[in-house]
Amino acid sequence: MLHFSEKRNYFLNGTFNQSNCIQFHASRVRAHDPARDSFHQRELEIYKNYETLAKTVFHSKPKVVFIAGFESTGHHFMSDAWRQFCRATKAENICDQEGGFVKMVKCGPQHRKLEEARLRKELQGFKQHIASTNLSLVILNTYSPIGLMQSYPNCRAGKETFIPDIRQLARIFEEWGFDFRVILLERNPEAITVSSLRRKFDRNLLSQCKMYLFSIKALLYQIKALDRRFIGGAISIERNLKENLKSADKLMIKSLNWTPNLVRKMFKKYKDTRRMQCIDSPHEENQTELANCRSDLYNEFFSYRKLFDTFFYR
């Protein structure tokens, strides 16, 4: 079993030096709320018990795509990329800005909202809207006039943590007869933590760690409950353009019926982001619990990277 410092060194490509880490000063040093932990456990039971969903729809107009990844893993890159791509291909009617899904789900919780009776009428209206479009691709998230990206996690609400559910989305769109695809995003957990804390998403590192641990476990359960053919792309903003293009040529050309030229238009303004930064929070009250949580979190991110790479390097 690797020590936590060795795990950090792995994700930082051998550059980890704790003396150089950013020192985060938590504005709230109290212990994590156990009510949120209970919510996490109940939600994980749902995803843990999912059966694998077989993919049966491979051709439809439009195809439907969802971008699945942690916050700070490239949703804003995807937003910019879709914007320039959809405008550059406007004459071909490939895609356009779409806000219907994000408007329905908003902050979440997605799983509950899409199953509730009060949303069924709205959901059916969204189905009819998609079916009537002349576009070849509907982008559910990252390119919406409503700001929410539907990342993992999506919102911190009171004593709950809301996340998307790609397994649920795959089931719904399969039942509707649409070819649904997921594009996975990836980045190292240290960089994600630094980015999110700088944007003041969380007030202390322990609470963030426990929310992240729940979110990465849920995402892994959801991906593993999908036929591998649902995965239509894999993008890592820490890898160079050549690597991402090679992956996209294998996955996105086939799953989205694109040409190599379209893939290159998608990545026209791509720049990799390799900030090898680390962060610590020395003033939080339970350093042992925090270190154990972060160590467990990095184990899950390692599992995610291994799974992600089976698609990225396929």
Task: Explain the overall architecture.
The chain has 314 residues and is of the alpha/beta class. It has one domain (53-264, 273-312): Rossmann fold. Helices cover 48% and strands 10% of the residues. The protein has a 4-stranded parallel beta sheet with strand order 3-2-6-7. It has a two-stranded parallel sheet with strand order 1-8. A two-stranded antiparallel ribbon has the order 4-5. A hairpin with a 2-residue loop joins strand 4 and strand 5. The protein starts with a helix and ends with a helix. The model has no long low-confidence stretch (mean pLDDT 92).
SSE string, helices as H and strands as E: HEHEHHHHEEEHEHHEHHEH
CATH architecture: 3-Layer(aba) Sandwich
Using the coordinates shown, work out and report the CATH topology: Rossmann fold
CATH class: Alpha Beta
Number of strands: 8
Q: State the domain count.
A: 1
Estimate the global geometry from the Cα principal axes. Answer: globular
Keywords:
314 residues, alpha/beta, Rossmann fold, 4-stranded parallel sheet, two-stranded parallel ribbon, 12 helices, 8 strands, 48% helix, 10% strand
Summarize the structure.
With 314 residues, this protein is of the alpha/beta class.
Strand-helix topology:
Layout: H1 4-11, E1 22-23, H2 34-48, E2 63-68, H3 75-88, H4 100-105, H5 110-115, H6 120-132, E3 137-139, E4 155-157, E5 160-162, H7 166-176, E6 180-186, H8 189-198, H9 205-224, E7 231-236, H10 241-256, H11 260-266, E8 279-280, H12 287-312
Helix pairs in contact: 2-9, 9-12, 10-11
